[in-house]
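Thread: Modeling a multi-component assembly for a lab meeting

Hi all, long-time lurker, first post. My supervisor asked me to bring a structural picture of a complex we are working on to next week's group meeting, and I have zero experience with this. I have the sequence lines for every component (581 residues in total). Could someone generate the structure of the whole assembly? Inputs are pasted exactly as I received them:
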Amino acid sequence: MATQSNRKFYHKLWLSLLGWAVGLLLFFPVFWMFLTSFKTEVNAVSAVPQLFFQPTLENYITIQERANYFNFAMNSIVISVGSTLLVLLLGVPAAYAMAFFPTRRTKGTLLWMLSTKMLPSVGVLVPIYILFRNSSLLDTRIGLILIYTLINLPIAVWMIYTFFKDVPKEILEAGRMDGAKTRQELFHVLLPLALPGIASTALLCIILAWNEAFWSINLTTTNATPLTAFIASFSSPQGLFWAKLSAASSLAIAPILIFGWMSQRQLVRGLTFGAVK
Amino acid sequence: MSSLTFQPDPQTRPKSRSRRLPNTSLLTAPSIIALLLWMIVPLAMTVWFSFQRYNLINPALRGFAGFSNYTRLLTDGSLWSSIGVTLILVGSVLAITIGLGTLLAVLFNEEFWGRGFARILAISPFFVMPTVSALIWKNLLMHPVNGLFAFFTRSLGLGSIDWFAQFPLLSVILIVSWEWLPFALLILLTAIQSLDQEQVEAARMDGAKSIATFRFITLPHLSRAIAVVAMIETIFLLTIFAEIFVTTAGGPGQATTNLAYLIYIRALLDFDVGGASAGGLIAVVLANIVAIFLMRLVAKNLET
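Re: Modeling a multi-component assembly
Sure thing. I ran the full set together rather than chain by chain. Output:
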């Protein structure tokens, strides 16, 4: 008996060590960047990497003074939230219609919407660039908002559709039998049930729009540049400002890390289009 | 209340049904129209441009080019090398993320202390924007003078490796695998958690060792999820751009130029609209091949 529970203990210990090693290893690059953001520039490039040092906040202050960080952060925020709102505006009604009033064509429509997501962005780089240039949409927030809306719409419709489908029919029937009119039924019964699903869809859309790095690099230059492109502009090797770069990057990824941690379960549903539950 | 009194199902009442039909089309129409425009207009333009001689530097020189853009592209070594790079990139990342992902999914399926927090740490790379990921690896870790890896290899007396000069494609593969491993882990973990524990218990009671259980029970159950992960990753990996843009700019030479980066160079650096469009169409065809298989799987799931 004693050796059984002993073995279980060691088994669990071994698993914990392994699991934590994996987690720490995978997270390490991010951690190292966070650490570097609190070093002075000289410390950051020292040939002997320092784990313990005198931390400073000077980098976080400088990136606003010298590089106007807030401007780029604002672009990211406006573009991500703006496109997500537009996605919800278009997608929630569509998902509602397809989930509760399906027709013969609903399944085909859903699959077709999904297929538009699989179009590689490079394939349409040229026409979009030319169209944007001709309609003065290059380097504007609106332009990126439009593109991101179109890119994320299929995923959003799909996710919300599956959430609506999860609402048990009995609850809707009960609402109907109590004599509630359709609109009342909609707001008082359906919305509270579907709200968590819609919220996690919105989170996923914000994450995808924030991290998008193809259109944001190619369609913006100075005005509408979001954080992805701003950080990409530091790709040429100029050694003496890694600490500031780390500070800018840490700020850029922090909100999305938190959003991601919050929505990991729903992510699976969204990113596999329901193929894995 | 008598059980005989009930309201008839609204859907059988003809009046309300005909009142509902036009409304639902109005609800779906905006999304469908938007996506239709997004699909048709740019694609049509790409096809059109691919048969034109059009260079943005010299826009006056226009004309029908026939298939010359395609023949130029197909005989140009760059296209085939970029396709090769794309295939190596996608294949390697798939192998690493799915192989490691499956093992890690099995690990995280087990109960251990602080599992939730360890899991949060493990999935973090997926949420880091690709430009930041690339710069972390390029500057902080892989830099031959100031990077952490150089420090370790120097301490071991091995000198320092200039990763992006000596092993450019491997370095990019490493970065992208780091970014996508959490994705595979999350999805495979979700799939494993739906595995019927009774089967595993029965196998264990029959004396099966863990490896045998893994091979004959866990793995077959996971095969569908693995297929989904493989297809979705392929679709996204075919168009990797930011990591290459930030680290190697396609070099040295063309060692890390995948199809997406080649099109970018042709379009926005050479301003060769015709050639870039032809390349773009090839990329669309490649993606479609994978997409067809993925759609079949999703469609099957829609039935259930």
